[in-house]
Specification:
Layout: E1 2-5, E2 16-20, E3 23-25, H1 33-40, E4 47-49, H2 55-58, H3 61-67, E5 72-76, H4 77-84, H5 87-97, H6 101-105, E6 116-119, E7 124-125, E8 128-132, E9 141-145, E10 150-154, H7 178-190, E11 195-198, E12 202-204, H8 207-227, H9 230-244, H10 247-256, H11 259-279
Parallel strand pairs: 3-4, 4-5, 5-6, 10-11
Antiparallel strand pairs: 1-2, 2-3, 7-8, 8-9, 9-10, 11-12
Helix pairs in contact: 7-8, 9-10, 9-11
Length: about 280
């Protein structure tokens, strides 16, 4: 069990890829793939387990399949087609990131469909259990390593840097869903994890406290988004970072979940609720 810090944009404690025996969970972006390959050395994984297809978690997957053509890639069915043909996904992201896309995420390499192991949630396979855990993304899954009881929860368990003072839910567009996320936390809790392993960043054994804190944070920040605008939300988030963690940890936190992007996901969710109320 090893957390490999891929040092995204040369910054520590932003993105970690998890190595569990001959499996990698969330390899990170292609822009950091050389760091991952250096850490692996001569160890060739047999499978990549993707919690979801956002570039900070899965962007390196295609490049790794190009490196090792027999590599199997696990992904939820809603994300699989975007790995086989990432054209639309990349075009959408480039509208958001513009000229910064290549620097942030690197090359997005298509993955042959033969390499994809498509998941729905509920599977048990090769020592792993899979659960469908939307809320952050509609195609998000979490994995339980049966031998250790560790749960690899991607972004569903939030962003929390060692030593873990601050815990935040990342809420970028387009798929944030508060009720789905609450249900996903319940799903993870029912697994009775021995520890939570998260991409941003590290592992935490205080599982019950962590999940309760995450529930509270989801409620609090969703309510704030309903009372303010994008600039006000970002300012409040940055103030929380400075007051709680500060310095390099605040910079790592902000890189893992950019404050300017978080309000947008919640606002879209709240607008959907308003529209559903108006038409219901």
């Amino acid at each position: 069990m090893r957390a490999i810090d891929v040092c995204h944009l040369q910054q520590e404690h932003v993105i970690c890829a998890w190595q569990v025996d001959d499996v990698i969970v969330d390899p990170g972006p292609e822009s950091s793939v050389d760091t991952l390959l250096d850490a692996l050395g001569d160890e060739q994984p047999r499978a990549l387990l993707l919690t979801h297809i956002h570039f900070d978690h899965a962007g390196a997957a295609g490049a790794l399949v190009r490196e090792w053509p027999d590599l199997e890639v696990w992904v939820h069915e809603r994300g699989a087609r975007h790995l086989a043909d990432p054209t639309r996904l990349v075009a959408s992201a480039k509208r958001l990131y513009g000229d910064a896309f290549d620097r942030l995420w690197g090359e997005v390499v298509p993955i042959p469909e033969a390499n994809l192991h498509v998941l729905r949630g509920g599977e048990s396979r090769e020592g792993w259990d899979v659960a469908y855990t939307p809320g952050h993304a509609s195609h998000h899954v979490s994995y339980r390593h049966q031998a250790s009881g560790w749960v690899f929860a991607g972004d569903t368990a939030g962003v929390r840097l060692p030593p873990g003072t601050l815990l935040m839910p990342p809420t970028p567009p387009p798929d944030f869903d508060l009720e789905a996320w609450r249900a996903s936390i319940d799903t993870i809790e029912a697994w009775e994890p021995q520890a939570l392993a998260i991409t941003h960043f590290g592992d935490y054994a205080d599982v019950a406290e962590h999940l309760d804190r995450l529930r509270e944070a989801l409620t609090r920040w969703t309510e704030l988004a309903g009372r303010t605008d994008r600039e006000g939300y970002a300012a409040a988030l940055r103030a929380e970072l400075d007051a709680t963690v500060g310095g390099q940890d605040a910079a790592s936190f902000a890189q893992a979940m950019p404050p300017e992007d978080q309000w947008i996901g919640i606002d879209r969710y709240l607008n959907r609720l308003r529209e559903a109320g108006a038409t219901g």
